[in-house]
Amino acid sequence: MSDETKLDSGEANNDTVHTNFIEDIIDADLKAGKNAGKVATRFPPEPNGYLHIGHAKSICLNFGVAKKYNGICNLRFDDTNPETEETEYVEAIKDDIRWLGFEWDGLYFASDYFDAMYDHAMTLVKDGKAYVESLTPDEIRQYRGDFNTPGKNSPYRDRPVDENIEMFEKMKAGEYKDGEICLRAKIDMQSPNMNLRDPIVYRIRHARHHRTGDKWCIYPMYDWAHGLEDSIEGITHSLCTLEFENHRPLYDWFLEQLPVHHPQQIEFARLNLNYTVMSKRKLLQLVKENHVDGWDDPRMPTICGMRRRGVSPSSLRKFSDRIGMAKRENVADIALLEHVMREDLNETSPRLMGVINPLKVEIENYPKDKEEFFEAPLHPEDDRWGSRQIPFCRELYIEQDDFKEDPPKKWFRLSPGTEIRLRYACLITCKEVVKDQNGNVEKLICTWDPESRGGNAPDGRKVKGTSHWVSARHAEKITVRQYDRLFNVENPNKVEEGQNWLENLNPNSLEILTGCYAEPYIRELKPEARIQFERIGYFVADRYDFTPETPIFNRTVTLRDSWAKIEKNQGSANRGQKKQPQPAKNQKKTDSTAPAEITIDDFAKLDLRVGTIKEASLVEGADKLLQLQVDIGAGKPRQVFAGIRKRFENPEEIIGKNVIVVANLKPRQMKFGLSEGMVLAAGGKENRLELAEVLGDTLPGDTVS
User: Fold this and answer.
1) pTM, whole model, 2 decimals?
2) pLDDT (tens digit per residue) in 390-401
């Protein structure tokens, strides 16, 4: 829809940018006059797979930093391994970045610099800082030692320079087999940093490269290529994930040996997400073994998969901003991602009515051949969307879940003899239940109040229940793919000995429903249109399979977090399976009001972190709450609403305190804002309350155990 596209794209320039430790470093560099006041970053994917949500965080960081400082950000493909890289991945990565709302300043490939890299490697050889190794790969590993055993020098480490030059030239000319020899840097085999124990610089691979063809049969290792690529492009700040922290001394050593520009490498924590795997190897396995329907399966954490699921680019940008930049590894809660998705979709999705599990309703006092239309807004909170006309006739469909023949207490939807409101239309009353030969409810016979057009009774009587509906005569038949989380445990990689991580796949991650109906306005939609089916959830018209003739919708996210409720119910069911021992006749019964016991495993699920209170203020309209901004080492402070106002009427007195924060508590939308954690406090009678403070030499984000 054009309106939807306009609203979504217009938001790209309004994303909030928060200061983080990386920007603090850049600010200090600019203040000191480094890099002539310039900022240049790069996003360097390897074209051996599709990007996932972890890459989205890096994309937002690198392109966001460049934009904030009026610098440049290059897209550079690290295509140094011809055996795993394909042009298909290159094009998919470019498509993903543009979809996220970014455009690169320069497009480069590591292969653009192969000649320069070879020349620089020859400089190391001529300077006696690199040598040709003739040990086998297994022997190299043995000589290298391990974390407990220092390495020992190769017998070829002191090979004459002239001989090294000749052999390296022959390597390039293709006169050796794969793995027969390699080029190593001569650094320190005794170094406690394994990366400095004479790392391999070039290895032989007689494989066709997707860009250079058969020109090269030797290919640089990433540690060698990385710094030179940054240097050649004039990158000022090379932003990497934490796994490269131990590689930084090698990055620096290589550049220090050459008369070249030396960028600064800075590491940040990669994005980890619960109920998800991020390993490219495992994602590839899911695809190859047909556990999913390709890289863009809406259950995959790939950017193209999330796009097909209906996640908006602004949602991913906001999520990246919300979780901030951390120096320590952490796991983000997928519930926070879903919360951000709902926030965004609530603002940018038109409302339509659809019935997923239909139940027919016949209005016996409505003329058979008559039809009329009711006007309804496309977005109840935003008049810019306009309205649509919903057709109405004698026969309708409502949701099966909106009717119970024998309703429980406080049931406000339809049941025999009760009256409900049809959204935007009128009031109806159920008079009769028609069943098939098996006793299943087949149809409801109802009456309508002609005076209640619009859904309000002229006599002022109040009707609590409201149902969505579609006209049976005008409804469009649709297919609905209901997607859920791909894994049914928080950490899919954690398995018992002898088990496989694939056993944690959620068998109910996809349900395809074909007998669904929607109002005829869906004919106006185009592929990738995001909508809300009222009272059901957010959906997207499938990117590839949706047509007016075959309307197929993918569920993006439910209206509420049903996952937490499922887990709670499952926990109750499991507790009920074990019969509790009965007390002896002369034994006192335990106090039923006492808190339930928990195990150490239950307590271990809490992610307790040191947090420093940076800001504290009163919450207007709340006599118990303080609004806190708490630094837990994640770059951006967490907002926490804490019920400690009676103890700390002057909020300024707690600023600077190091407290204990429950960091993995699901975000909660409160009346006054989003609360993203909990601070621990001890309380008692007479309003005694003290914060659980952490003393000693600690930093925000340190684990409390």
Assistant:
1) 0.78
2) 999 999 999 999
